[in-house]
Specification:
30 strands; OB fold (Dihydrolipoamide Acetyltransferase, E2P); 6 domains; alpha+beta; five-stranded antiparallel β-sheet; 559 residues; 19% helix; rod-shaped
């Protein structure tokens, strides 16, 4: 009887065990640690199944495993039974499955997740998100580039999931998004307590070529290089250093972008308030060249006050020359104040005005008629430019080179560098022109005609016969008598009635010293002689003919 009872109990237990479903492979089950040996934990997962898991699967990145006999753990059932009759299980995969469920919910709700950076890979880092491994791009580590990520390794901190794909096992996270969000909250709080015009203390965090970033207690403001000092600042490092605490004024706050503009010079007196009183028009001051451009040079009159010497106001004589060839940076120069515009904060300065106009000096020291000597600086189609004192030039026009040659021919005899002599004929200070004449160096005409005046009767020799008249010579000086001046009688106004070498008496009608020409006329001589005869010997109006009068005059002369 007892035997039948035990068989019935066994049968009932066997049927009960069959009624219990064996867990499916690929599912997460709970188990209990039975023992720890050889770096592994032996875990009873029920259903008459045991499996082994490496202890390292129970350790957080960078930490030692914390597991003891009797602990209840979750494992992933990969295989119900292997060749040794054991279940193939994994605690890490169980954690991963649970993590993916948790992370998908957090991603959908846009919530932060905790994790720890535990490795470096190409382009970024790996992050353990409580069982699931995510990729942290290098650009998403911090708001600024991170040179050393060592202090961040193994540190548990929040991350924001940017993208995840469970099928591909891909998760991308960002630490930067968390920092920007917290910074934005902090910035909003700090900015709410700031006002434009307020003076605050800040610490210089970073220096760039265009300014410095100043930490105002959780929010950065930009101190632009132009707002550091009233004077010209070439680089922000001249004024501030990293880590230095400085006092600045809030110039502008952009509530939308949370950008703050700061200034240091606004806390100092503006030197432009006293510019007109200190630097009156026409006054001369000592200054330092701070910057040179194509159009001029900037000169600092005092810290914070600069003026521009335009290229046209730099030199009396050096035209179309780059300012850098006249002055150099940091050079001390003497300048004159030409114009002040306080509203536009501009001062126009002159460098050449501190020296006398060289054309005025030349006009005073070299009046017209003065003989000068200089080197030919340039030769053009219309004349020669001759170098004179104080770097100025005078010009000898083609027509003033030679008496005997045409200008185009005479200029061929000269070359750059030749030293020539000339006479000053005109100085125009306003137009900055000096006219010279090389012809004026020849005084032979004055020597010849010194005793000849207009109206005088002289004897000339015919040297050439032309259709328009005859060429004559007087003491080596050539002149020309036009056909209409050859005789009082029109029928006698024939050039061919003269021969080369003939001696002819003529009347001087003009003496032109400038062109070295004598105006001569036979006709004028005849008319003058007729008038004189009439005056002395009678009037044709009394009945006597002109021939009778001239005949009487000749007879009287013979007597």
């Amino acid at each position: 009887m007892a035997q039948n009872t035990s068989m019935e109990e066994f049968e009932a237990l066997l049927n009960e065990s069959f009624d219990i479903d064996t867990p499916d492979e690929g599912s997460v089950v709970k188990g209990r640690v039975l023992a720890i040996e050889a770096g592994q934990a032996i875990i009873d997962v029920g259903y008459k199944m045991e499996g082994r898991v490496d202890l390292k699967e129970f350790a957080e990145p960078g930490q030692t495993p914390e597991i003891n006999v009797g602990d209840e753990v979750e494992v992933y059932l990969r295989q119900v039974e292997n060749a040794r009759g054991e279940a193939v299980i994994s605690h890490e995969m169980a954690r991963r499955e649970a993590a993916w469920d948790r992370l998908e919910k957090a991603y959908a709700d846009e919530n932060r997740v905790d994790g720890a950076i535990f490795g470096r890979v190409k382009g970024g880092f790996t992050v353990d998100l409580g069982g699931a491994v995510a990729f942290l791009p290098g650009s998403q580590v911090d708001v600024r580039p991170v040179r050393d990520a060592g202090p961040l390794m193994g540190l548990k901190q929040p991350f924001q999931i940017l993208k995840m794909d469970r099928r591909r096992g891909n998760i991308v996270v960002s630490r930067r998004a968390i920092l920007e969000e917290s910074r934005a909250e902090q910035r909003a709080e700090v900015i709410a307590n700031l006002e434009e015009g307020q003076a605050v203390d800040g610490v210089v965090k970073n220096i760039t070529e265009y300014g410095a970033f100043v930490d105002l207690g959780g929010v950065d403001g930009l101190l632009h290089v132009t707002d550091m000092a009233w004077r010209r600042v070439n680089h922000p490092s001249e004024i501030v250093t990293i880590g230095e605490t400085i006092k600045v004024q809030v110039i502008k706050i952009n509530k939308e972008t949370h950008r703050i503009s700061l200034g240091m010079k606004q806390l100092q007196d503006d030197p432009w308030d006293t510019v007109e009183a200190k630097f009156s028009l026409g006054s001369v001051h000592q200054g330092r060249v701070t910057n040179i451009t194509d159009y001029g040079a900037f000169v600092e009159l005092e810290p914070g006050v600069e003026g521009l010497v335009h290229v046209s106001e730099m030199s009396w004589t050096k035209k179309n020359v780059h300012p850098g060839k006249i002055v150099s940076t940091s050079q001390e120069v003497e300048v004159m104040v030409l114009e002040i515009d306080s509203q536009k904060r501009r001062v126009s300065l002159g460098l050449k005005q501190t020296q006398r106009n060289p054309w005025e000096v030349f006009a005073e020291t070299h009046p017209e008629g003065t003989q000068v000597e200089g080197e030919i600086k340039n030769i053009t189609e219309f004349g020669l430019f001759v170098g004179l004192d104080n770097d100025i030039d005078g010009m000898v026009h083609l027509s003033d080179i030679s008496w005997d040659e045409r200008g185009e021919e005479a200029i061929q005899r000269f070359h750059k560098g030749d030293v020539v002599q000339a006479v000053v004929t005109e100085t125009d200070v306003e137009k900055e022109r000096i006219s010279l004449s090389m012809k004026a160096m020849d005084d032979s005409f004055s020597d010849v005609v010194g005793g000849v005046s207009r109206g005088a009767i002289i004897t000339v020799a015919v040297t050439a016969i032309e259709d328009g008249g005859v060429e004559v010579e007087y003491e080596g000086m050539k002149s020309f008598i036009r056909r209409s001046d050859l005789s009082r009688d029109r029928s006698e106004q024939r050039p061919e009635r003269f021969g080369v070498g003939d001696k002819v008496d003529v009347r001087v009608t003009n003496v032109d010293q400038k062109s070295r020409r004598l105006g001569l006329s036979i006709k004028a001589r005849e008319i003058a002689e007729e008038k004189e005869a009439v005056q002395q010997y009678g009037s044709s109006a009394s009945g006597a003919s002109l021939g009778d009068i001239l005949g009487a005059a000749l007879n009287r002369d013979d007597d």
